[in-house]
């Protein structure tokens, strides 16, 4: 099965991608993983990407797409994959469609994790990270009344990208760049929306239920 997972920051894409890919025995492919693999492997594409990443710039579409094409061409992705974080915009989606058409295949389904923006802000801005062990706690979900990690005694802090104003900006970028992707795949008649609120296990169950008709 060939799947794309989309949704706003804080929707739980990374977590759900891991569960779904494991259930279907297909590789979970994210742009972050691809970037790290190419950079650590010293590939030509990795060297190009690192120049942009070191400057804090976005890696250009052409470099990202070339990496994704290479990754999708590997043996473990031949019978299916789950893409998390790619495509991020309509031009990338159109290019992905062309790549798959060259291989005489197509996407089976695009799962959209649907979550209210207020919930996204609550999820992300409430996170606190331990400066010693790196565990993430939540001021609401973990009922934290202090700034001490219960695991190791480290100090909890709020990462810059979890601050409310930064989260609001990330949502604005998502609306501008990625939300049109939802309409693109709706027009392709392969988009299925999944309610991404509630316990992780319940969201996973909804996603697997949506995929069941496509399983062999």
Automatic annotation (TrEMBL):
Listed pathway(s): Purine metabolism; AMP biosynthesis via salvage pathway; AMP from ADP: step 1/1
Taxonomic lineage: Bacteria, Bacillati, Actinomycetota, Actinomycetes, Streptosporangiales
Domain description: Consists of three domains, a large central CORE domain and two small peripheral domains, NMPbind and LID, which undergo movements during catalysis. The LID domain closes over the site of phosphoryl transfer upon ATP binding. Assembling and dissambling the active center during each catalytic cycle provides an effective means to prevent ATP hydrolysis. Some bacteria have evolved a zinc-coordinating structure that stabilizes the LID domain.
Superkingdom of source: Bacteria
Catalytic activity: AMP + ATP = 2 ADP
Start and end residues of each stretch annotated as NMP: 30-59
HAMAP family: Adenylate_kinase_Adk
Protein name: Adenylate kinase
Family membership noted in the UniProt record: Belongs to the adenylate kinase family.
Keywords recorded for this protein, A-Z: ATP-binding, Cytoplasm, Kinase, Metal-binding, Nucleotide biosynthesis, Nucleotide-binding, Transferase, Zinc
GO molecular function: AMP kinase activity
Function: Catalyzes the reversible transfer of the terminal phosphate group between ATP and AMP. Plays an important role in cellular energy homeostasis and in adenine nucleotide metabolism.
Subunit-level organization: Monomer.
InterPro entries, alphabetized: Adenyl_kin_sub (IPR006259), Adenylat/UMP-CMP_kin (IPR000850), Adenylat_kinase_CS (IPR033690), Adenylate_kinase_lid-dom (IPR007862), P-loop_NTPase (IPR027417)
Binding positions for Zn(2+) per the UniProt entry: 130, 133, 149, 152
Ligand binding (AMP): 31, 36, 57-59, 85-88, 92, 159, 170
EC number: 2.7.4.3
Stretches assigned to the Adenylate kinase active site lid domain: 127-161
Positions of ATP binding: 10-15, 127, 198
Gene behind the chain: adk
Residues spanning the signal sequence: none
